[in-house]
Amino acid sequence: MSEMTWEHLRDLDCGAVRTLGESWKTYVDQQLAHTERLRTDVIDGHLSVENYESDTATQVRDQIGMTADRYEDDLSDYASTRIATTLLEAADAFEKEQNELKELIPLIEQHDFDIEGPHSEYDVNLSGDLHQAILTLNPPQWLCDMCGVKKPDGFWDWDTLKVLFDSVDLYGTAIGLAGQYQDWLRSVMSRAHDADDEAAAALSEMRENPTELPPHLGETYDDLVDDYKEGVTEEVANEAQAIADGTSGLSPEQVNQWWENLSESERQALIDEHPEWVGPVDGIPVESRDTANRTLLGNEIDSLADRITAKEQALQGMDPESEEYEKAKAELDDLKQDRTDLANLQDKITNDDGTPAASSQTGQDYFLLGFDTEGSGKAIVSIGNPDTADNVNAYVPGTGSNLSGASAGLLNRADTMAFDAQRLGGGDETATVLWMGYDAPDTLIEATDDKWANEGADDLESFTQGIRATAEGEPSNFSLTGHSYGTTMVGTAAAQEGVEADNLILVASPGTSVDTASALGVDEERVWASTNDEDVIQYGPVHGEAPVNEEFGGNTFTSDSPRESSEWWKFWEGPMENHSSYWDQDDPSTPANEGNDISRDNQAYVVTGQEGRVR
Amino acid sequence: MAGADVFAMDPDEVRKSVDVLFEIEAEADTQAAAMATANAEAAGPLKEAATALGPALEAAGEWWRVHRAGGFCGLLGNTGEYLAACAEQAVEIDDYNAGTFASLAGELYPERPNANASSRPDW
Q1: How far is Cα A28 from Cα B69, in angstroms, rounded to an integer?
Q2: What is the per-residue pLDDT for B32?
Q3: How many domains does chain B have?
Q4: How many angstroms separate the CA atoms of B61 and B27, rounded?
Q5: CB-CB contact of A509 with A396 (8 Å)
Q6: Which residues of B touch A196 (CB under 8 A)?
Q7: Cβ count near A148 (within 10 Å)
């Protein structure tokens, strides 16, 4: 487990780690020359059938071939994918956070703050000198500037008195700034520790269940070689299962390398025979995941039908007044709801003839990247293919998101986002993903708890890494758009784990878990927030500083509040309604392509890389 | 080992195969050792920095050297020794074990350490 301190991270030689990773890549090429030589100089050369012919000679040639095959697999799976890629990814991750420290630590020092506490949870506090300066009515210039007071010149004049009157404000401002730096530092170290632990796990897992080596020639050879060959046929399946189970320690980038190194027939066999090891896995290309997930979806619907039938039969033998009956009835209702939800999702993304359906708004195909009926349910559906798109926008919904919405309101909203990106994208292809990959809170009370975001953070990090890993060609302009609690989900993942996104769009946010955009691990200039004037959420930022506030340090964009109360006296309806109005068409009488939907337009401009047009 | 219904051998060519196998074995062993050393050197500062990566990296380098590259080298050595024995005797060897080669190695391959062969379970 990583116990790196911020000083350790600051002083780490990331270049040395990267150089070693590159050395392993070079080493792999060097070793592949050996296996090539075995084949050309030995098997097809000195030891060819012209020079040595017998049953044993054939066996020896096979043995050398097996030895070369095994070493090539080892070089690919272990030396390249595991060791080299782990080092290169770790170097990049450490360096990214190190650069954050290079910006942050001087700020902490310049403001006379102290870093205290253990490496797992640093505090940034006012130094004794800073306390003294404020208490003696001699606050530093930067604090006077922040509070809008003139620095006293040492005499008991009006300025000094004003400082005395404002001392609470001065303290509050200083503590607030220290808190922001604390959030920033904790986030940097959280991401660095996460990267460190993941890198170590990737290397350690490698040694846990290594593949067998061919047996040595000798008396026991004939007994052992068949077992070896049989084991080889099961290796891909074993690897795939470990990856899907999350026990392999591979990052999505490493999963992608593994997948690309399989033969076409191996990949197809996994999709056909074990779709459950393909569909949910970040790092496997989207088209393969979609094919596997559609199979899984059909299987799950069939399975639910069987379970419903069995449960209905069981109910017939129970006393309708009994607790057992009530419990079984509730389970039956849940099963039926799950079946309905999944069937609706299947209908939405599938044509009548069974082929994948396209969005009616954009004509882009739907891709199913995952689903689950546990908890509130999960679904990850893309409109357009993220692997080939110029822009990718992943929409993370908030409180109340459930499987029912994945084929209805939530996916319709994603369709609207896709439409806007297509409408304003200048011909660029944008893939819009509904990422309901976490168990969202069901109620506003539940939404005051950050556990939902904490539990989903790792999965959102992995999803973003997968988008990067499977992209073809140039990396896309990648946005994460959170709405309501979805912004808490996005912020938590960004701050704690790190996300591979270019832009964060935070709509109607109750807070992101941190008080400053700097803690989110992306360029502050590419953090965008908006809350309309009527939105009720502005009264309850329960997860940290509202990102629309200037103190947060991100950008903001304008959103209208088009919805109104149904009756003049129902004053609460407008604020509630306008929490979800960000994808409304402001003026239904105006065609959507005339740019009257300011929030939607602004979001689309960010998603399509036209930030200069944001209003 | 398999039987020998048809048998034809050019011992000189087989010995050249042996040379190639031993050559690759030696080179791969040296190169793996160099990588393990590089890993250990890089792991030092990482361990001092209290990273989780440092110890894992050092272990990974040594594991690769001993078990995977080492396994590859062992297989090449074993196959080379078997072929060397076959070429020397110009016959199929049905009940080969490491001792067969070791009994010839002193004259043929004096630079190859018999300790390596004698450590095997089929010695």
Answers
A1: 11
A2: 97
A3: 1
A4: 17
A5: no
A6: 51-53
A7: 10
Q: What confidence score (pLDDT) does residue A541 get?
A: 78
Cα separations (Å) of B111 from B22, B27, B76, B115, B121?
11, 15, 16, 11, 22
How many angstroms away from the CA of A175 is the closest CA of chain B? 30
Cβ of A161 under 8 Å from any chain B Cβ?
no
Average pLDDT value for residue range A212-228:
90
What is the predicted pLDDT for the residue at A155?
63
The verdict on A414 touching B (C-beta cutoff 8 Å) is no
What integer pLDDT is reported at residue A163 of this predicted model?
A: 63
Give the residue on A whose Cα is nearest the Cα of B100: A218
pLDDT (0 to 100) of residue A227? 93
pLDDT at A590 over 70: no
Q: What pLDDT is recorded for position A154?
A: 66
A36 touches chain B (CB under 8 A): no
pLDDT, residue B3, reads: 47
By CB atoms closer than 10 A (0-12, 13-18, 19+), residue A203 is buried
Query: Helix or strand or coil: residue A370?
Result: strand
Contacts of A3 in chain B (CB under 8 A): 50-52
Q: What pLDDT is recorded for position A135?
A: 86
Residue B3: inside a domain: no
In a mutational test of the A interface, the residue from B10, B13, B46, B48 whose CB has the highest number of chain A CBs within 10 Å is B46
Q: How far is B63 from chain A (nearest CA, A)?
A: 7
Q: What is the 3-state secondary structure (H, E, C) of A300-329?
A: HHHHHHHHHHHHHHHHHCCCCCCHHHHHHH
Parallel/antiparallel/unpaired status of strands A503-507 and A527-530: parallel
Residues of chain B in contact with residue A63, where contact means CB-CB under 8 angstroms, are 75, 79
Roughly what angle, to the nearest 10 degrees, separates helices A167-208 and A158-165? 50
Residue A281: half-sphere exposure toward Cβ, Cα within 13 Å: 33
Chain B positions touching A24 (Cβ under 8 A) are 35
Residues 6+ apart with CB under 8 A from B64: A78, A79, A83, B32, B35, B36
User: Is the Cβ of A445 closer than 8 Å to some Cβ of chain B?
Assistant: no
Q: Between A584 and A296, where is the model more confident? A: A296
In terms of Cα–Cα distance, which of A9, A179, A4, A207 is closest to A97? A9
Q: Give yes or no for residue A368 having a pLDDT over 70.
A: yes
Buried/exposed A464-487: b ≥16 CB within 10 Å, e otherwise: bbbbbbbbeeeebbbbbbbbbbbb
| Domain annotation covers residue B36 | yes
Cα–Cα distance for residue pair B31/A42, rounded to 1 Å: 21
What pLDDT sits at residue B119?
45
Which of B14, B53, B68 faces A46 most closely, judged by CB atoms? B14
Domains of chain A: 6-101+206-279 (no CATH), 112-186 (no CATH), 357-613 (3.40.50.1820)
Contacts of A30 in chain B (CB under 8 A): 31
Is A31 close to B86, i.e. CB distance below 8 A? no
Q: Residue B69: which domain range?
A: 11-118
Asked, for residue B44, whether it belongs to a domain, the answer is: yes
* Chain B hits for A52, Cβ within 8 Å: 8-10, 13-14
**pLDDT above 90: residue B93:** no
Interface pTM (ipTM) of the complex? 0.91
For the segment A165-182, the average pLDDT, to the nearest whole number, is: 89
Residue reference for tokens 């709801």? A337
Q: Confidence band (pLDDT; 50, 70, 90) for A161? A: low
Is position B70 within any domain? Answer: yes
Q: Read off the pLDDT of residues A70-103 as tens digits, 9 standing for 90 and up.
A: 999 999 999 999 999 999 999 999 999 999 999 9
A507-547 confidence digits (pLDDT tens):
999 999 999 999 999 999 999 999 999 999 999 779 999 99
